[in-house]
Amino acid sequence: MLKFNLALFSDRQEYDLEIKKTDPIFHKDFKIAEDFLINLALTKDKDSTVIVEGTLSGAIFLECGRCLKQYTHELELNFVTIFKDKAVYTKEDELSEVEVFKGNELDLYEYLRETIILDMPLKPVCTEDCKGICSICGKDRNVEKCGCETKGNDSPFVDLKNIIK
Ligand SMILES: [Zn+2]
Ligand SMILES: [Zn+2]
After folding, report:
1. What is the rounded CA–CA span in Å between residue 77 and residue 36?
2. Which bound ligand lies closest to the C-alpha atom of 147?
3. Which residues in the chain belong to E strands, given as ranges?
4. Residue 137 CA to ligand 2 centre (angstroms)
5. Which of 62, 76, 103, 123 is the most exposed place for a label (fewest CB within 10 A)?
6. Chain centre distance of CA 11
7. Ramachandran region of residue 23, left (φ > 0), alpha (ψ -120 to 50) or beta?
């Protein structure tokens, strides 16, 4: 569903797509929490290039790195990129991160997958003040206070700091 036939239009074509959360399309990388709405504009340019502009909104599930609970990460993406026909694709294009298509078929799957993955936080947290799981008793400290003695800082680097001192 993310493949577009470039023979079907001469200069510019817009598309409104929906990817339902039940659609397994990206299932290897993430789970869709809210249906994706994608607006796309494909513009044919000179030198066998196509300019792809678009927006994507929706949400995916991520796991909080502190409490390990699943939470919803909203996506509001704007993207613009250039695709070029493989027949005229050069090393220079590759270095300037120009994407590639073959024949009349432009496939946006891989590009969108990467765009979404790049938007994911490096350290996912459900909320900024998530208290996480107690490293001593294993209780979720968002739910109950366990009363274990923790030395103020929950950073995994705290022990390292003490060693360096
Ligand atoms: Zn959390
Ligand atoms: Zn505890």
Report:
1. 11
2. 2
3. 3-5, 12-19, 31-45, 49-63, 70-85, 99-101, 105-107
4. 4
5. 123
6. 29
7. beta
- According to the model, what pLDDT value does residue 147 have? 86
- Ligand 2 geometric centre to CA of 150 (Å): 8
| Distance in angstroms (rounded) separating the CA atoms of residues 142 and 132 | 7
Nearest-5° Cα angle at 25, 127 to 30: 25
Cα 34 to ligand 1 centroid, rounded to whole Å:
20
What's the Cα-to-Cα distance from 54 to each of 50, 64, 147, rounded to whole Å? Answer: 13, 29, 50
Of the candidates 63, 34, 77, 76, which has an alpha carbon nearest to the alpha carbon of residue 124?
A: 63
Instruction: Tell me which ligand sits closest to the C-alpha of residue 135.
Output: 2
Strands 31-45, 12-19: parallel, antiparallel or unpaired by DSSP? antiparallel
The residue extents of the domains of the chain are 3-119, 131-165
Q: What percent of the chain has pLDDT over 90?
A: 85
pLDDT < 50: residue spans in the chain: none
